[in-house]
Amino acid sequence: MASQTGLKEVVSLYQTLIKEWNRKPVDLEKVGKLLSGMKMALIQFSFLPTSSCKPSPQELLLARDALEIGVQWSISKKDIPSFERYMAQLMAYQLFKRTGYLFEWLKLSVKKKMVSHSNGSGCPCKKNFAKIILRHSVGLIWHYLMEGNYNKVFLARGNVPADNYHFFMNILLDTLRDEIAACTEKAYPCISLPEATRILYFESEKDMRAFGEKRGWILKEDKYYYFELESEKETKQEIPSYKMIQYMLEYAKELERIV
């Protein structure tokens, strides 16, 4: 347990952190520096509690609240590795005192895993989590993914429990769009702009055009995207035999002159 003087300094630092975090618009760079300073100050306390130590409730609350701000800050920065680090540290407080946003952060953490497992390689959560805190993330969206019912996954983006979900939800939707686009390239020789907008669940043709450019799709004057068949791609990748023969003949002539 830390001294009262050290505790007052950390409380003062935390109050500054809260003030900056609640400021609109928030200065993410400044909050990031304050979070780093807060974690350094918390080292003198039982920053990550274990069964062998008994930190005071105030120390636990300070560390917990700072880590929760760190989770939200990571989402605002769109920094997934930072989100994972703060989540791993925040999980330790589940054993001591139920955190105010712990259930929400756990859902977000699993949603992040769902993005990387969207190919159906297996559910990354335990059954008891799904029953208690992951109803939205796993009980619904994972079920839709396993069914291949992408339409319901896209509809679920308007039914998220909190605004913080949108970041990971958008990553998941982008991943699904890439999968749908890859299948479209193989299944159809061409597709119209309105139809591509529909099957990729874009709200406007402008967004579809931007997505098409990102994938290297070329929109023709008739507003159709045309895809190369696999046989055409293989033909293009064949060795240019005619040019090779021509180069070899020229090389032989040059050698004959030299000799």
Automatic annotation (TrEMBL):
It comes from Porites evermanni. Keywords: Proteasome. InterPro entries: 26S_Psome_Rpn12, CSN8_PSD8_EIF3K. The keyword Transmembrane helix does not apply. This is CSN8/PSMD8/EIF3K domain-containing protein. Pfam families: CSN8_PSD8_EIF3K. The lineage of its organism: Eukaryota, Metazoa, Cnidaria, Anthozoa, Hexacorallia. Residues 143-233 form the CSN8/PSMD8/EIF3K domain.
